[in-house]
Design goal:
- The chain starts with a helix and ends with a helix.
- By secondary structure, it is mainly alpha-helical.
- The protein has four helices and no strands.
- The chain has a domain of 31 residues.
């Protein structure tokens, strides 16, 4: 572990000498105040009434119900049997399975 630590320290010292740290950039006077004022002005204009919030939720719910309905309709049409096949009557099913009882 000792050789690694000494090599690490020498590499770090060489890196510091090669590229001195950049001086921090000063922000203009009043920058923070302007940013906060703009954020407050934008958030004040976006207040919504309860009716608008309910309408947003209703639209989202309608979209979800429509998506589920479309998915179910697609699954139904994908598994739809041809019209030529007819379900056997209950009497045929009972007659075929009666001997197993």
């Amino acid at each position: 572990m000792k050789p690694f630590d000494s090599r690490w320290e020498t590499l770090v010292a060489r890196a510091r000498e090669a590229h001195p740290p950049a001086s921090p950039v000063e922000t203009p006077a009043g920058f923070t105040t302007r940013v906060l004022a703009q954020a407050r002005a934008e958030s004040a204009g976006t207040t919504r009434s309860i009716e608008e919030l309910w309408m947003i939720r209703i639209r989202q719910g309608f979209a979800m119900v429509a998506a589920v309905g479309i998915a179910l309709a697609t699954m139904e049409f994908a598994t739809h049997r041809p019209h030529g096949l007819v379900n056997p009557g209950i009497e045929n099913t009972v007659a075929q399975l009666l001997w197993r009882l």
